[in-house]
Amino acid sequence: MESRLVIYNTLTRQKERFEPLHAPNVGMYVCGPTVYGDPHLGHARPAITFDLVFRYLKHLGYKVRYVRNITDVGHLEHDADEGEDKIAKKARLEQLEPMEIAQYYTNRYHQYMDALNVLRPSIEPHATGHIIEQQQLVQQILEKGFAYESNGSIYFDIEAYNKQYKYGILSGRSLENIKDASRDNLDGVGEKRNQADFALWKKAQPEHIMRWPSPWSDGFPGWHCECTAMGRKYLGEEFDIHGGGMDLVFPHHECEIAQAQASMGHPAVKYWMHNNMLTINGQKMGKSYNNFITLVQFFTGNHPLLEKAYSPMTIRFFVLSAHYRGTVDFSNEALQAAEKGYEKLMNAISDCQRIAVSPQCDPETERIVKALRQKCYDAMNDDLATPLVLSHLFEACSVVNKLVDHKATICADCLKELKEVMHLFTEDILGLSMSNGQCSMVNGSNAREEAFGKVVDMVLDLRAKAKANKDWATSDQIRDALAAAGFEVKDTKDGATWKLNK
To answer: Is residue 74 within 8 Å of residue 82, measured between CB atoms?
Structure first.
């Protein structure tokens, strides 16, 4: 299978043609959430980005095994191996078992990702379910001479590794710079030979709840081990794509590369893909910065920075309206523009059903429709350029509006092509659902929404009958009652349409 897809490889710092190791099979690993709180907009971006990759690779005909992990142990408060386990700390504060915290927030993560129309991965392994694999990884690194034991903990020896390989290859940092930064941040920590060394296994202190027996101590794996161990278990010693947020390039992904190279003698990943950050006033959005807005707050509007509630599909459109490698700064203005853009697309797709077929197209309509599919493919194949895809779809929306207003003509074949392409790229590939993706925890079930729509359609049918019978009073009464309830009714040559004003 020859691929025209080109993606940016963080490792080589350039765009490369995507050529899987074992086509048509593709292995993709993406770092998932640490489950100790509700997902926020910063979690939505990588989930939507790699959902897009997953969808498009499958559309191209690849058989994709998509692994996205759940971190439920080992992620300490400070990435440099110090502080309390994030999940254990939450459990202590709420007087619950750590696994209660992990399960509760895993469930919440799934529900909100479902609302965003993010497809479930092929495999979703948990760090706590792969302690043995992580211990085996640590043992291999020890045996190769790239790790050492200190007071029951095992640390990766960066100096030893750097004599044979290069630590810092992904982030572009030199070892000396890394060591200098580590000395500044962790001066006085005495277990390590070098403060830049990172934990592979940590001995648990007496108060530490989450612990497992090992040859070295009762303890727990270092945060970086889980992805290396689980990626290898489910995707093999070499696989195609490893993804995550740009904030994971260092130290997490840098450490993963070192662990794989040290344990196997060769790299594990061919293409490293990273989405850029979401920011608020130029600062990264995240729990550690205490500036995050959770998805449930977006869906309800319950946050001081939000002027109103925004639907899940508005959030998804907002994320896709920027290139995945570009920074996106939060603002109500940008979200409201995304809301209008999403509605414009959905209205156009719906309006396609009302277009009358003509014996032939006018030249401009024919030109735009016949070029649309290839333009969208060209944009997707150029490192998933979703803003350009959306611009092409908006051009198609303008064609639909002209056709509905009888200001242009279209033949049956071109109308079929227009419908197919708009559905394919809007819904199947970009994942923008017509249902608006309302989260059941906030806005009720899709079944309830569907029933709601049917009731409105039934009321409009009654209005149409009243108009046909020249019962203008009843017709106006129905229209006014719908308007008072927040519905905008528009009479067209092909019948009435409606939408709910937010």
So the answer is: no
What predicted TM-score, i.e. pTM, was given to this entire model? Answer: 0.86
Q: Are 28 and 21 in contact (CB under 8 A)?
A: no
**468: helix, coil or strand?**
helix
DSSP letter at 195?
T
Domain count along the chain: 3
* Positive or negative: CA dihedral 425, 431, 432, 436: positive
Give mean pLDDT in consecutive 10-residue pieces for the chain, a chain of 502 residues: 85 98 98 93 96 98 98 68 77 86 94 98 97 98 98 96 96 85 56 92 89 96 96 98 96 97 98 94 74 92 94 98 95 96 97 95 97 98 98 98 96 97 98 74 49 71 82 83 78 68 58
Burial of 96 (0-12, 13-18, 19+ CB in 10 A): middle
Asked if 276 and 297 sit in the same domain, the reply is no
Expressed as residue numbers, the domain containing 128 is 6-11+23-280
Question: What does the block give as tokens for 70?
Answer: 């759940």
Residue with tokens 């200098």: 180
Tokens of 430: 């970009």
